[in-house]
Amino acid sequence: VFEHFWTVARESGLxxxxxxxxxxxxxxxxxxxxxxxxxxxxxxxxKNPTDKxxxxxxxxxxxxxxVPEGFSIGYSGDWNAAEAMIAGADTWYSVLAxxxxxxxxxxxxxxxxxxxxxxxxxxxTLAPLWSLFKEFSSLRVVYALAELLDxxxxxxxxxxxxxxxxxxxxxxxxxxxxxSDVNR
Length: 184
Known about the structure:
10 helices; globular
C-alpha cells in the first residue's frame, strides 16, 4: 500500500488524499502507515471513517501527533461528522453536502466557531436521514434524495443497486419531517 501511494503521488503530480475505508476495502490504514504516507510529497490529507462517534476526539488527537503540520485530517460518515468537526477535524467529506449543502455548511461553520451545542442541534435535525444512511447506505439514499428533490433522476453506478420503492417512501417521509430551516 505504501509503494502504491508513493508511486501515484510521485507519478501523478496531483495532491493525494488517503481514503481509509475499511468497510468497503477490508483494509485499514494503521497509524504507522498513515504517518509514513503523510511524509510523502504530494500526499496532503486523509479521509477517516467515523464508525464510533465517541472515539473521534482521541483518534484525531492521536493522528495529529503522527502527521506533519498542515496535513489535513478529515472524516466521512455523515452521522458522526458534527462530532468530528467539534473535535477539531480539518474537513468533513460529506455525502449529504452534495444534495443539502447549506445545512452541512452550517454545521461546519458553527463547529469551527466553537459552538458545539448549535452544531449538535443542527445535526440532530438530520437524525432521520442519518438513520436511513445507516440502514440503506448513504450513497443510495442521496441518489433517492436527488430524485425526490427533482435535482436529477439517475441510478447509482453498478454494482450498487437503486433502492426499492418502499425505501424511497421512507426517505420521502423523512425529508418531509425535516425542519424548515434545513435547506430543501
